[in-house]
Write a structure and sequence with these properties.
Layout: E1 2-5, H1 16-30, E2 35-38, H2 48-56, E3 59-66, E4 72-80, E5 85-89, H3 90-94, H4 112-124, E6 128-132, H5 143-148, E7 152-154, E8 173-175, H6 177-182, E9 187-192, H7 204-208, H8 216-237, H9 253-261, E10 264-267, H10 268-275, H11 278-281, E11 285-295, H12 304-314, E12 319-326, H13 330-333, E13 338-341, H14 349-354, H15 356-375
Parallel strand pairs: 1-2, 1-11, 5-6, 6-9, 9-10, 11-12, 12-13
Antiparallel strand pairs: 3-4, 4-5, 7-8
């Protein structure tokens, strides 16, 4: 019996590789003779670079860059020398997880550090940069990223616009000529875990701004700034990014990179599953086991567990999802053959995160026992 274990990260508790190991440990207590294939997955969110790096045998490259508030932080990217590809998570340098709750304010948070990582990859000789767009603290449309790569974003007096989303309100001149030369021979791929456009009621400011510390007044300013940037790109490049699907990823970084440099915006889970050869691993699989912190309506927007289930069920392989919690909406549960809880009793979120690994092991052991009962024999 072959069991394919393909969890996403359990945000704030376990990385995807750690979750995969915990599931194997638990299931193997009941099914010690099964064949286990561990394929941790990601969908463009925080941890995507690690998942791809481990799966593809990449070199881990570290350097000091700036966090969203301009403070030094240890950043990293994964380097695939054979294809001269760098895989970078926006969250590594520009992530919300780097800020205390009291520091979260997308008017001031900048994507500058992500630009520094991209610069280092280009200096190393990158011919392709794959950018995992999830988990950012920013809604600056990639302004900081562009500045770090040498672009000019100036106000009407010719001074650089301030860092963060507020700077776009003062944008009077945008010159990306240095970047065009720097990126002329670099393919840009943005892995998105959302479908949201740059602007509007479902856009980067309205939907993700509040998650990053913005109140209603800030959301209005952020929307105006992003709209101003989008108009500049339309006038300068003739490319409309205002309503591009997935353009709202990473606070608008995705839309700007597409409009200015022709970046490809792709669903992250599908790109990752193809990169790790997931479909081939389905051959001979009896079950697929995935996991997520919480299953909700966003799961259906091609988040990692949904992508795994879609691929597996298309091949007739049943899928079990282990989760910390799940919405009551039947549509959220429908993609999976079975959904089982990780949490063993009602607890505060902080306790659930702390107990994530031992509880995931126990839940997986129970799943293994169910599989053994289903088979009617030892496994």
């Amino acid at each position: 019996m072959k069991l394919l274990i393909a969890p996403n990260a359990l945000k704030g508790s376990l990385s995807a590789p750690d979750a995969a190991e915990a599931i194997r440990e638990g299931v193997s207590r009941a099914c010690p003779n099964a064949e286990y294939r561990l394929l941790p997955v990601a969908d463009g969110g925080d941890g995507t670079a690690e998942v791809l790096g481990r799966a593809l045998g990449a070199e881990h490259v570290e350097l000091i860059v700036e966090d969203p508030l301009g403070r030094p932080v240890r950043g990293a990217f994964q380097w695939l020398a054979g294809t001269q590809t760098a895989v970078i998570d926006v969250a590594t340098a520009s992530g919300l997880r780097l800020l205390a709750v009291t520091q979260q304010n997308p008017l001031f948070s900048s994507s500058h550090g992500t630009g520094q990582l991209m610069h280092a990859a280009i200096e190393r000789g990158a011919r392709r940069i794959v950018l995992g767009a999830g988990g950012s603290a920013t809604v600056d449309g990639g302004a900081g990223l562009m500045q770090a790569l040498g672009a000019t974003l100036a106000d009407e007096d010719g001074a650089p616009v301030p860092r963060g989303g507020r700077g776009l309100l003062a944008l009077h001149r945008l010159d990306v000529t240095p970047l065009e030369r720097r990126l002329a021979n670099v393919e840009l791929v943005v892995l998105s875990d959302v479908k949201n456009p740059l602007l509007g009621a479902e856009g980067a400011a309205a939907v993700f701004g509040p998650q990053k510390g913005a109140d209603s007044s800030m959301v209005t300013d952020l929307e105006c700034g992003l709209s101003r940037l989008a108009d500049f790109i339309l006038c300068g490049k003739g490319v409309r990014i205002h309503d591009t699907p997935m353009g709202g990823a990473a606070g608008g970084i995705a839309a700007s990179l597409r409009g200015l440099f022709g970046a490809r915006l792709v669903p992250g889970i599908d790109w990752v599953l193809d990169a790790i050869d997931f479909d081939a691993e389905l051959d001979g699989a009896s079950w697929v086991i995935t996991a997520e912190g919480h299953l909700d309506s966003q799961t259906l927007s091609n988040k990692a567990p949904f992508g795994v289930a879609r691929r597996a069920r298309a091949r007739g392989v049943p899928v079990v999802a282990l989760c910390g919690g799940a919405d009551d909406d039947p549509a959220v549960l429908a993609p999976f053959d079975v959904v089982l809880p990780i949490c063993r009793r009602p607890v505060q979120i902080a306790d659930a995160l702390r107990l994530g690994r031992p509880w995931l092991v126990l839940a997986s052991e129970q799943l293994g026992r169910l599989i053994r009962v289903y088979r009617g024999t030892e496994c």
